[in-house]
Amino acid sequence: MTERAPRIAVITFPGSNDDGDAALALAALGAEAVAVWHAEGELPDVQAVVLPGGFSYGDYLRAGALARFAPVMTAVRAFAAGGGLVLGICNGFQVLCEAGLLPGALRPNESLDFVCRDVALTVERADTAFTSRCADQQPLTIPVKHGEGCFFADPDLLAELEAANQIVLRYEGESPNGSVARIAGIVDAEGNVLGLMPHPEHAVDPLTGSTDGALILGSLIDAARERVATAAAV
Amino acid sequence: MIRATVLVRPKPGILDPQGEAVQGSLTQLGFAVDAARVGRVVDLELRKGHPQEARAELERMCEQLLANPLIESYEIEVREDA
């Protein structure tokens, strides 16, 4: 049986700059990356969507605040509402929070420094579509590069996130940005939308160090592949 | 024409590293400053409408875009030009 590679959309907003790396990483791991421009009103036939890192709309007003009004975001919202898999990396995470697809907000780093280095993470949940290739409490090393990665949730929201088990990744040791509860990545209540500040697409090739990012993207590809199979079986 | 000014501030209790950096620098310059918070000013010119309606519209602008209600508070000032 020839299996069709899962198709994963990578959205490009004006100012996105990790869309290329995201597409290369997905392709290297066996998916077909489909480039989608922010002005598109509809998504092509895909099994998952990636909102990449960068500085959409120059980070004007607040990081991610303007991208949520891009025409394609209406389609992404509908895709997510229908249970579609959406992964937001760095600026993509900021866009998901501003769009209300994920709770919380991302604030300027506590240090005010732009942080660009490998960070140690812990997988808090290995039962999501984005972490199925990981083990619970598995340590990962994945780079971050951001100026506004300080995840904020007020005490009520934080308690909700903890209770609903929505925290998927935490920084090991000190948070590089001052985020509450050392949060590095969260899922929505339904578990089909993940946002994270670290860049898995920059950690898939031994040439550049860690390959732990392949565990995250590989998990997403596995989940997307299952959806191809399910669709084919229907 | 109606002119409006929207002041957006980090909510009390929200960490404001920019404000802390500004306070530190002012202290270094010899000013006795105990705290500084840094927000944002948006000046707007509205094409038409009644000041009361304008205020309601500005509220919506703040909720939908100009402020992030989770982390920021806002104040709206409306002026009518003769």
What does this structure look like?
The complex is a heterodimer of chains A (234) and B (82). By secondary structure, chain A is α/β, with parallel strands linked by helices. Chain A contains 5 helices and 11 strands. In chain A, strands 2-1-3-4-11-10-9-6-7 form a 9-stranded mixed β-sheet, with helices on both faces. In chain A, strand 3, helix 2 (71-81) and strand 4 form a beta-alpha-beta unit. Chain A starts with 6 loop residues before the first strand and ends with a helix. With 82 residues, chain B is α+β, with helices and mostly antiparallel strands. In chain B, 34% of the residues lie in helices and 30% in strands. The radius of gyration of chain B is 16 Å and the shape is elongated. Chain B starts with a strand and ends with a strand. The chains are: A alpha/beta (234), B alpha+beta (82). Chain A binds chain B through residues 61-62, 65, 69, 98, 104-105, 107-112, 150, 152, 154, 157, 178, and chain B through 14-15, 17-18, 21, 65-66, 68, 70-71.
Topology:
The complex is a heterodimer of chains A (about 230) and B (about 80).
Chain A: E1 7-12, H1 19-28, E2 32-37, E3 48-51, H2 71-81, E4 85-89, H3 91-98, E5 105-107, E6 115-123, E7 139-146, E8 150-152, H4 155-163, E9 167-171, E10 183-187, E11 193-196, H5 213-233
Parallel strand pairs in A: 1-2, 1-3, 3-4, 4-11
Antiparallel strand pairs in A: 5-8, 6-7, 6-9, 9-10, 10-11
Chain B: E1 2-10, H1 17-28, E2 40-46, H2 51-66, E3 72-80
Antiparallel strand pairs in B: 1-2, 1-3
